[in-house]
Amino acid sequence: MNRHYWYNYPVNTRDPFGPAQPGQHLAEEYAYHEEQLLACAPPSGTPISCKYYFLKKKGFTGTPIIPELPTAADGGVGRYRIYRNSGGEWIIVWHTETGAHEIHGTIYEKWKNTIGDNFGFPITDELTTPDGIGRFNHFRRVHEPGKPEGSIYWTPQTGAHMVLGAIRDKWAQLGWERSPLGYPVDDQRDPSGAVSFATHLTLKQRFQHGSIIWNPETGAYVEGATPPTPPIPPPPPVQPSQPTIIVIKQNSNIVVTGSNFKSNASIRIRIVVGVIGNEYSYYANSNEIGSFTHPIDVSGVPQGTDIFVSATDGRPAQNSTGFLWSNTVPMRL
Fold first, then answer.
1. First-to-last CA distance in the chain?
2. What is the pLDDT of residues 149-181, one digit of tens each?
3. Based on the structure, what is the number of domains in the chain?
4. Global pTM?
5. Of 70, 90, 105, 135, which residue is least crowded by CB atoms under 10 Å?
6. Is residue 116 domain-resident?
7. Does the residue 50 lie in any domain?
8. Domain for residue 270, yes or no?
9. 183-193 burial, b for 16+ CB within 10 Å, e for fewer?
């Protein structure tokens, strides 16, 4: 059974950024969480129940009102479950190619009342736009050739609107909501004025400061763009490089080497052994250029055991909660 989704979530809730403690044995850092195991591990757990578990930890509220059901657009490969709280309904949708993601609020209502999973499976949770004004989800139509992507963007002033196809590509090329066009104020429409997903008709979508038009002959182009007021905010600061690690086996140790971490930082090295619930932490210190090398004694772990190694310096993850983690390195001892 494919269990990769288990490793998307932290298990050990202890403070990971205390002083470095090299040489700790795995048994000293053992963490077991029964509730999380039930939510995330088969046979009781599913990707959707695991996602729901961690959304509740982030403050989401809601009670499931239906069992997990197969999705329709892809012939039943995906799954979904609807929840309800005082604010209304929201949903978690899962597919093998996209993982499990939530849609809520006005964006969920737009998605549900348009074409639902025919519009695409969510590939993000609802996120805040870089300018801090709007909210959005991205979607992927995994059941269609080329697996095209679409988005639903919302602001209090403009409401929720779909952006897809060549019009979305053009808007993205211009800079999304930071472009001179601003946010969408309508869905794309054909010459009759009807909302349309046609690929043989001219389509037009209005934005705050202009429109994008597409037709089969000319492609997508901007009509009537005007500079927004106030001026476009500066682009977000360049984010640090993604931290990376490599892991090698050396006698009774594994040796973890990292790069692109913060300089002179305490590094938490996380090891998941076999299955979720068996998680341990080690600590190392990076040097002035953000690199480190740290041996870990694994002599107490049976040969043939699968382990999964990752590391973090405590930086927040961009566009999500939690820490920015390195790549995860699988290894069989």
1. 20
2. 999 999 999 999 999 999 999 999 999 999 999
3. 1
4. 0.59
5. 70
6. no
7. no
8. yes
9. bbbebbbeeee
